[in-house]
């Protein structure tokens, strides 16, 4: 048995220091599959795709199998450095609040019976 998430839905909004997120945001699908032999492994793989201190929300919004992870990012989806945060606080750089939503599925693989299929 194996667990997989074939990608993530990403939603971002600009986060302005001491003012919060500024709508409108943008959303799109990210082709970033993750796999694990256990639930713990796939959750660790999702966390590894993002910042290690990011909290995971399990069964987010009441959707079974949905995992949301929120983090701050630069314009190129990188984790902000201390210097990035300092520029952001001075209003010299934009940072983005990003939420990635993954849908984890349990996968059971079986050989395909090919005889008589053609």
Blueprint of the fold:
Layout: E1 2-5, E2 8-16, E3 20-30, E4 34-36, H1 39-49, E5 56-58, E6 66-73, H2 82-89, E7 95-103, E8 105-107
Task: Provide tags for this entry.
118 residues; alpha+beta; three-stranded antiparallel β-sheet
3D architecture notes:
The protein is an alpha+beta fold. It is 16% helix and 42% strand. It has one domain (2-107). A five-stranded antiparallel β-sheet has the order 3-2-7-6-5. Strand 5 and strand 6 (66-73) form a beta hairpin. The protein starts with a strand and ends in an 11-residue tail after the last strand. The model has no long low-confidence stretch (mean pLDDT 92).
- Globally, the shape reads elongated
Rg (CA only): 18 Å
- Note the gap between the termini: 29 Å
Number of domains: 1
Please summarize the sheet with the most strands.
5 strands, antiparallel
Element pattern in H and E: EEEEHEEHEE
Helical region count?
2
Proportion of residues in extended strands? 35-45%
Helix content: 10-25%
The helix-and-strand class reads alpha+beta
* Main β-sheet, spatial strand arrangement: 3-2-7-6-5
What is the average of the pLDDT values?
92
What's the total number of strands? Answer: 8
Contiguous runs where pLDDT drops below 50 for at least 5 residues: none
């Amino acid at each position: 048995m194996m667990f997989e998430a074939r990608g993530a839905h990403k939603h971002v909004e600009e986060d302005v220091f001491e003012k919060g997120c500024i709508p409108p945001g943008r959303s799109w699908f990210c082709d970033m599959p993750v796999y694990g032999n256990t639930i713990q492994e796939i959750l660790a793989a999702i966390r590894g795709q993002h910042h290690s201190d990011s909290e995971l929300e399990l069964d987010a919004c009441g959707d079974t199998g949905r995992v949301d992870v929120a983090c701050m990012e630069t314009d190129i989806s990188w984790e902000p450095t201390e210097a990035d945060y300092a520029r952001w606080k001075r209003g010299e750089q934009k940072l983005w609040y990003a939420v990635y939503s993954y849908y984890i599925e349990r996968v059971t693989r079986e050989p395909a019976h090919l005889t008589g299929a053609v």
